[in-house]
Amino acid sequence: MKDSYDFSAGKRGPVVSSEGKTRVTMYLDNAILERFREQAAAQGKGYQTLINDALRDAVSKSVEPLTVEVLRKVLREELKVA
User: Fold this and answer.
1) CB neighbours (10 Å) of residue 36?
2) Which conformational region is residue 20 in: left (phi greater than 0), alpha (psi within -120 to 50 degrees), or beta?
3) What does the domain layout of the chain look like in residue ranges?
4) pLDDT per residue over 30-58, tens digit each?
5) Between the N and C ends of the chain, which has fewer C-beta atoms within 10 Å?
6) Residue partners of 60: CB distance under 8 A and separation at least 6
7) Residue 37, exposed/middle/buried by CB under 10 A (0-12, 13-18, 19+)?
């Protein structure tokens, strides 16, 4: 460790840019949070990243229009189960 450091060009604020992201506070069920933490540990990712990915998938699925191809895929999957 150095005896002194030069902070004359230093800037105040966050070290990591959070451009495109917003910090929020929210309550999640303990079981849900634990599940994401377990998955994150297994995949070597952050649990918040996995939660963000899950939310992105949920939003994108609800926005997709129902096409003939999607309907056929769903029907095939349902018929396999039956």
Assistant:
1) 20
2) left
3) 30-81
4) 999 999 999 999 999 999 999 999 999 88
5) N
6) none
7) middle
- Cα separation, 38 vs 46, whole angstroms: 10
Reported as half-sphere exposure (CB side, CA atoms, 13 A), residue 18 has a value of: 7
**16-27 tens-digit pLDDT:** 767 888 888 999
pTM for the whole structure: 0.56
Q: Which amino acid does the sequence have at 38?
A: E
SS3 letters across 9-43: CCCCCCCCCCCCCCCCCCCCCHHHHHHHHHHHHHH
